[in-house]
Amino acid sequence: MKSPETDGSRAKVLAAAFRTWTTVDADPEPAVARLEIRYPPDWAFASTNSITARQQKRLLDFLRDDLAENRPGCSTPERAARVIAGLLAELVAAGQTRITTADLAQAAPRIGRSRTWIAEHITELVDAGQLAETRRPDTFRIA
To answer: Residue 130: what pLDDT?
Structure first.
């Protein structure tokens, strides 16, 4: 069974949400931009959704807010811990049983905390029994 990352199901859900949003949030103004929808795994063209200036502003404002919230130092420790828990759940769902410090360090922008904070949180996860140390340095078994 393919994971959601490789079968494209998440991209398809997002594309459907955009289609619904642009249809339900009908705006009589003329379109100023187009969202081109493509589906994985080969990213073939699926559809194009036209959006108005108001819709474009709302979408960009949402993305800016989300990106600002994920900047290192701007995310709360609680939120960052939830993001890491989500990452671990995604890996488990994809059948992965191990994670490295580098895996989480690469996700630092998504987590919104510094690499130092992430390293400290890994220690907390080991102490809590959610991760277990392995014989390989910086590699942990997901418990």
So the answer is: 94
